[in-house]
Amino acid sequence: MNLPQLYIGSKVTKIPIIQGGMGIGVSLSRLASTVANLGGIGVISGVQIGFREEDFEKNTSKANERALAKEIKKSRSLSPNGILGVNLMVAMKNYKEMVKIAVNENIDLIISGAGLPSELPSLVKGSNTKIAPIVSSGKAAAVIIKLWKKRYDYLPDLVIVEGPKAGGHLGFSLDELNEKDLPSLSKIVKDVIKVIRPYEEESDKEIPIIAAGGIYDSKDVKEMLDIGAKGVQIGTRFVATHECDASTEFKEAYLNSKKEDIDIVLSPVGMPGQAIINPFIKKMKLIQEKVTKCYNCLTPCNPSNTPYCISKALINAVSGDVDNGLIFIGKNGHRINKIVSVKDVIAELLDF
Do 108 and 8 touch, CB atoms closer than 8 A? Predict the structure, then answer.
C-alpha cells in the first residue's frame, strides 16, 4: 500500500511513524535522532530530562530546562534534516518554560498530554513549531479543538489518539479501565475522525490523526491506516533497541516480562498507568515509602501523602536499578523477545 506522509511545516516524513516520547530518560537524543534519520518523527521526552545534570537535586527546574536545550541541540546535530519533536506533559510545573525552550531551539513538533494543553497555541505563536494534543476520546478531541479555535483561531497540526493499551500514564480513569466495554483504539480513532472532519472541511486544512497505544506489528499499523489514521505513534517497540537511551537492564526488563506481569498501577500523581509489576511495585502495595526529597515536578503530586516519589522510581529504573524502580510499558510489551536496531523495528512495522 502507499504510505501516507505527515507534513510538519516545510518538512515531510518518509514514513508515517512517530516514536513515542518516553520518560524519564528513555527517549532522548540518540533514539529520537535515529528515528528521524530513518524518515519518521523522533521524539524526546522532556519530563525530568535533567536527571543527569550535576545540580539536578538542588536546582531541578533549571537543570531540566538546560538539559532540554542540550538534547534538542544534540538531536539536531545527529539528524540535521530529520523531523524532531518533544513530548511535554501539561502536568509539569515548569511546562510553559519548557515549551518556550523547545520553541527557541526550533523544535519541529511539541506533543502534549497528561492534562489539557489549553495555552499551547499562544506559547508557539510566531514560530515554526507545530503542536499536537494527546486525546483518548472523541469528546476530549472536541473540547481541545473548540477551545483552540475559539481562543486562538488555531487548529491542531496533528492529533495523537491514545488508547488504553499504551504504556505509561493513560488518559482514562481507573473506573473506565475496569469497564468490560472499554472502547478499542480503532473505535476511538473513528470517533475522533468524525469530530475532526467538519473542522477540516471548514478550514480546508488536513488535521492528521495519529493512532497510539498498543500498536505492535505491521498488522496493527495497517489496521489503523485502513480506518483513516494518517500515521501511528509507537513507544514500547523502540525500547528494546540498541539505540534506545535507557540502560541495558531496563531493556532486559522488557525482554523478561510476561503477559501477566503487565498491569495498571495507580501513579503517585493520581493517574493510572501501565507498568511491569516488578518487586518495586509489589513492595509499594504493602508500604508507603517516605519521600525525603521532593523534586516539585508534577502539579497533582503531594509529597505528604504520595506512596513514593515517581521521579526517583523512574530514574532508578532507566539507570539500571530496575528492582527499585517503576518501569512503564505498553500492554503488548511482553511480546518483545530480543534487542534489535531501530531500523529493524521500522522495517517490521511497515512489512505489510
Answer: yes
DSSP 137: S
pTM of the model: 0.96
Mean pLDDT of 105-118: 95
Cα angle value 33/225/242 (rounded, 5°):
30
Element (H, E) at 61: helix 60-78
23-68 pLDDT, tens digit each: 999 999 999 999 999 999 999 999 999 999 999 999 999 999 999 9
Question: What does the alpha-carbon distance between residue 302 and residue 286 come to, in Å, rounded to a whole number?
Answer: 19
Taken in order of first residue, the domains within the chain and their CATH numbers are 7-246+336-349 (3.20.20.70), 248-324 (no CATH)
Q: CA-CA-CA-CA torsion for 99, 189, 115, 143, nearest 10 degrees?
A: 100
pLDDT band at 71 (very low <50, low <70, confident <90, very high): very high
What CA–CA distance (Å, rounded) separates 19 from 210? Answer: 11
